Predict the structure.
Amino acid sequence: MSASSTAKAPAFVATTKAGRITDFVDARVGGSGILREFGRKVFPDHWSFMFGEVALYSFVILLLSGTFLTFFFDPSMAETHYDGSYIPLQNVEMSVAYSSSLDITFDVRGGLFMRQVHHWSALLFVASIAVHMLRVFFTGAFRKPREMNWVVGGVLLILAMAAGFTGYSLPDDLLSGNGLRIIDGVIKSIPVIGTYTSFFLFGGEFPGTAVIGRLYMLHILLVPALILLMIVLHLFMVVVHKHTQYPGPGRNDGNVVGYPLGPVYAAKAGGFFFIVFGVVALMAAFFTINPIWNYGPYDPSPVSAGTQPDWYIGFVDGALRLMPGVIGDFHFEYVIFGYTLTLNVLLPALVPAGILFTIMFMYPWIESWITKDNREHHVLDRPRNAPTRTAIGVAGFVWYCVMWAAAGSDLIATHFHVSLNDVTYWLRTLFFIGPVIAYIVAKRVALALQRKDREIALHGRETGRIVRLPHGEFIEVHAPLDEYKRYKLVGFESPVPLPAVPNDHGIVTRKEKQRAFLSRWFFEDRVAPATPAELEAAHGHHAPAVEAAEESKSLSH
Amino acid sequence: MKALSQKRRHPLAAIALLLMGLLVTGGLYAVATTVNEAKASTTSYSANDTAEGEKLFAANCATCHGMGASGTQDGPSLVGVGAAAVDFQVGTGRMPMQMNGPQAYKKPAQFNDEQTHQLSAYVASLGAGPAIPEEHLLDGQGNAAEGGELFRVNCAMCHNAAAAGGALTRGKFAPALADVSAKHIYEAMVTGPQNMPVFSDANVSPEGKRDIITFLKQIEANGSPGGADLGALGPVSEGLFVWVAGLGVIIAFTIWLTSRTS
Amino acid sequence: MGNHSDGSPNHSGTVATAGQNEVEKFQDPGLPPHRLRLADTDPKAAKRAERQVALLFGTSVVGTLIFLVAYFAIDLGEGADIATIRLQNALLGVGTAFAMLGIGTGIVHWAKALMPDHEVSEERHAIRTEDDRQAAVRIVDDIVDETGIKRRPLIRNTLLGAVALAPLPALAIFGDLGPRPDKALSHTMWAPVEGKLKRLTRDPDGTPIKASDVTLGSAFHVIPEGLNELHEGKLNEKAKAVVLLMRLDPASLNPSKGREDWGYNGIVAYSKICTHVGCPVALYEQQTHHLLCPCHQSTFDLTQECKVIFGPASRPLPQLPIAVDDEGYLVATSDFKEPVGPSYWERDEHERIINS
């Protein structure tokens, strides 16, 4: 395909039509180098590698459907009386923004479909980013040299949430209006600058007549532009680093095994765009999302039961719900130096999200400091082979999920017929002990899975066939693994704790002691991979010998 | 048989089984919770109705509400609650209560229309109270848009903007209003059953109530233009759906996409 | 595995292989042998796959047609009913889904079944070469050196100062996004105008409420008289002024000192705006006398002057002092005695001004 050509004397003449076109374009833009680099670039294939693509494709769908919506949407907060075709809102006083959203829904052919495509793909966009990040975390793909890209990905998550929230508010319906009011309340709780910020955002008192237009500008211009910029950076770094791969026979840190971009991988990835679009279209065809006609226009007096933000803001809303305003006689709102400090709003709105994002951004550096691991990693860890990291991730995820569930505490109460107050009490408890339990359980499960791997690597797979030996003993026949399958189970690193070492001056610093302590915490419980000697022993002798070998190798309990 | 047992070992078998189980349980639950609605009744009482009602009351209600409906520790006095209250509570099966709890649940009515009518007659005879609404207020021919506005201001905070219900404190809840008859909606507004506030005619006029009923019946009949409404519960059910169904289907596709063809 | 556990931190080669303890580790057997697909060996299978791919592309064409038919054949026109809109939405969606899934699954099936499926191993190249690295570091050092910024601290410091201050205009220019917050948050429409007390009126129609209308157990959603006639800032005023009016048995109210005459015969009025983050606290349980906010479940006890008994709010709901005028209508005797709604930094200051 790629034809090399120079301006004067083409030594190589393209013969096929595709070749000639390539040649023509290349002579004018000079892309042969790029094509040579990318045309056959190898990409590893695994289902869990596809979530980043889902996010990218959702974003493309968002741009397409969003552009359509801008042609009909009017972000004005001027008052009007609805005269469209939805009877239950006939002649109701509302803003132009809400009225034009209703017109898109009921009077523009395909408008409802586009709205639903836009909103479903928005939810999918953030969800796929979240799952992609979980995959990257649990497989250790954030390690050197990909730390920066992990940070860019984190920024993308925040931008995606910002895009979602600004869009959620645009129709100016009762649900999103109350959402904005909550945001206003949170902003006002910020010390010193809170009231000013609120007045600047809303152009005066809440709700004012400015905020929808401002959010619209952020939603269709600033935030998408930043997302686009970050996506370019993200993909650029993916190209520089090449993709990671799962461990397995033939795969190591020095190579990348998979399918070449052209044609197989490009076909799969390209086809996958249409599949994602198709799935979103199916959801938009059959499932209502954001039924703004139910909510009615924004009015500061009414509110609907079950007023919640979209799922990605849910954890903040849940944290707001979990925080008690008063404990005994202690009020979390109090007056200092004549000014009001509202900790019952400020703490839950900022602290959990702050902790989550700070740890998320810093994690690659935290881990490499503890483990002193400065090597490049291109082969992923199976989550079970990094038990402590997996446990940390699960603990964080559970913590997030507790807050997330709290955002639906009223629906949990009504649908499971329990008391709303009890749901809150339970979730408050889980907020503190949930992550601890999750950490312990996840770590034990990871270690157990590692032991199971060892067992299978040494003794083979259980066949379920029970055989009675001549002397009467029953045994289950184990089928030995082939060497490729076995390598997958044994080919991983199992670092041991790194004791504190003195620095150049021969002193063990306090920081180094702390690092050593954390290193012990990180690697103390470990299951070493099976070795050829153990396999030999397992085959050559009977069970007791193997067990002894296992004892001596695995320090865990 | 062999084919079946082979299929059982298929990796998707567990999922199929799970789905089947869920469907069956859900279906049974739906059947079990279907409630027979009491039909509208007339509002004239004869002396016989009152006398029969008193007997029914003594046999079924007096344990908690006391002889002569004067109330006990277990149940409030019913003097002056009116026929509408009885028709609502008994007609929706909330009374007689199965057990004391945060709130009385809707269940299949224990008394037939005639008995309900007799009980209403008896309680109405004890003291003046809201009567059973007239037919023309229940016809659903009012102004849906005005009803919608009244509904959002007065009702949506508990019952949800799409009347899908919502939680109250300590195990109490505001029920969903789909499948509730116009008469029972009206009666609930005028009598304020349990923790629901009373919306007397001085608060929301009879015409306003008619508009509210019109609005409710209209959105119920319309359904959602966008397809299945996911319970009309708002962003929580939408988020759950995108995580479970949306991502689920996409993950299924990614697994197919990256698997090897045989 | 050795690299790591031997404790030396300096194994930072770009490529790490298990080098040291070869005996202890299993050898990498390399890529498993390639397994041929049915379509690679059997021309019939290949032909079948080809037809399947074509069929999938055909499905896409059908989908596109469904979309076009649904778009042009179903006319929404004036007053189209919901069922028509639902039908059109479903058909447009199904059409799009078929059109997209047909192409997508077709291409993927093509790639999986017919394109070469040999896994290829490609060498990873280091992100940079040692030469480049040294050159880059040297270049940066040279550039820094040639500017002389290290030798001339005066230039450096003045530049830093200038750069640090330069963004200030960019901040200042946003100063007109909104007015400075004045005392607007501390008062509402309920303040009597020229001695005339404001009547309590029904939300949304604005009709006044007689004390006798408010029966035991009822709850009225209330706006101040004249709100609906406002032309400007109606929602701003409404956002502060909405009130919930309820009637309880007077014996169950326990007014504190100075607030005995804020209610009338068991009728009390409280701000509907939550003191947490401002949702309308509109859920009134008439038997327990609790008010519940549907957004974050703050619960206020009406019998204790709306003290917080559950949830994230920290401050009671402000009470509106009410009385009855000579025509029997409920009126507010004054504005709220404290700012309503969520707390803000200057709140306490405003409260002191109101009460002085």
